[in-house]
Amino acid sequence: MVVQEKHGEGIIMYPMKGMNPRQMERMMRQLGMRVEQIPNVSKVVIYSEKGEITITSPQVTKTKIMGQTMYQVVGEEEKEKAQVKGEALAGAPEISEEDVQLVASQAKTSKEKARDALIRANGDIAEAIISLTQ
Known about the structure:
The protein has helices at residues 21-30, 97-107, 111-120, 125-133, and strands at residues 3-7, 10-14, 34-38, 43-48, 51-65, 68-77. With 134 residues, it is of the alpha+beta class. It folds into two domains: 3-77, no CATH class; 97-133. The strands form two sheets. Strands 3, 4, 5 and 6 form a four-stranded antiparallel β-sheet that branches. Helix 2 (97-107) crosses helix 3 and helix 2 (97-107) runs parallel beside helix 4. The longest helix has 11 residues, at 97-107.
């Protein structure tokens, strides 16, 4: 188990008994690991098919290892908001019924699939048709 503590721009890691924090940091560098705190994050939102999870006042740590980047988020979770099927995500444009019908007819698909494609394409009709026909 490793305990992390913020220290200026970086993070101090305190390993279990018997290991010097400097040795731990050196070993992590040898393994290609880099850990850094992301400052001034006010909110993290995770979107999924079942809804969204909002984490307020988060502490976000970014770890790079072997070409992969991992984010660790710690904070207070707000209630999960269920997303109504076909409802646009926050910030997505309004999708008109005419646009849905046009995309559905051009892509020869259902209105539900056309609406979902328009939402993913941020209202761009051409992009929605292309995504459904490829």
